[in-house]
Design goal:
Layout lengths: L1 E3 L15 H16 L3 E7 L2 E2 L5 E2 L5 E11 L2 E11 L10 H12 L2 E4 L25 E5 L5 H11 L6 E5 L9 H13 L6 H11 L9 E3 L9
Parallel strand pairs: 1-6, 1-7, 7-8, 8-9
Antiparallel strand pairs: 2-5, 3-4, 5-6, 9-10
């Protein structure tokens, strides 16, 4: 699972610990370690990767990795969760987000992006031309950004050769940053515990995690051709 969060303090080149992105990252980290029993296996705090190849430690980006072994549908399963807090702005010279996003598109089963949609400019496929898509690999992608439904459906389904091996979760309205953490927990928890629930139930839980902020009109596309074999 790969996540990118909103925000850091560009002036000081270190994370703003009062920023909603930082708070959301910590909320998910706490849930993984203290409530679900995941083991933290990696922490890399304070680095940037520039387009000219420089790797600088300045306190900006944070990478955390968590691992747990569970049993799902009677089979052993190793779950690896990777959380990245990085600058996803397409205008930045820091390519850390792009590097990990390409890896996620190629390898991850579930990808959760939480950041600014930039009216579709944050994640257009032409920004990541080197992705080697596995057309046989089933993936779920959650674009938890403002009004992502009109921006990311068509291109991503086309890149995967249709919806047979891809389900997309998108929003129709703005997504407040102060509920990023609770949204991430609600969305990921069933997968992290190896549970099998319906998309309808998962969408309902996402709505509930919005709390007093109300609906973001979150919905799923690509599920119409799903097949279930326990």
């Amino acid at each position: 699972h790969r996540l990118s969060w909103r925000g850091h303090d560009r002036r000081k080149h270190r994370p703003n610990r009062r920023d909603d992105a930082y708070l959301a990252m910590n909320e998910l980290s706490y849930h993984l370690k203290d409530e679900l029993g995941f083991q933290q296996t990696r922490v890399d705090s304070g680095f940037r990767n520039y387009r000219d190849g420089r790797h600088v430690h300045d306190g900006t980006n944070i990478l955390r990795v968590y691992v747990k072994h569970i049993t799902a549908l009677g089979q052993p399963l190793r779950i690896r969760v990777q959380i990245l807090m990085a600058d996803s702005d397409p205008e930045t010279n820091d390519v850390t987000f792009e590097k990990y996003w390409v890896q996620a598109e190629e390898r991850a089963n579930i990808i959760h992006f939480d950041g600014h949609s930039n009216l579709g400019g944050a994640l257009p496929l032409e920004r990541f031309p080197n992705v080697k898509w596995d057309l046989e690999k089933y993936q779920i992608m959650f674009f938890n950004s403002c009004s992502t439904y009109p921006y990311f459906n068509g291109d991503y389904f086309q890149a995967k050769g249709g919806s047979k091996t891809l389900d997309l979760v998108t929003t129709g309205l703005p997504t407040p940053t102060n509920i990023s953490g609770s949204n991430a927990v609600a969305f990921l928890e069933p997968f992290l515990e190896g549970k099998t629930i319906s998309w309808q139930t998962l969408m309902s839980r996402l709505e509930q995690s919005n709390k007093e902020e109300g609906t973001s009109l979150t919905g799923v596309s690509g599920d119409e051709d799903n097949e279930w074999s326990p």
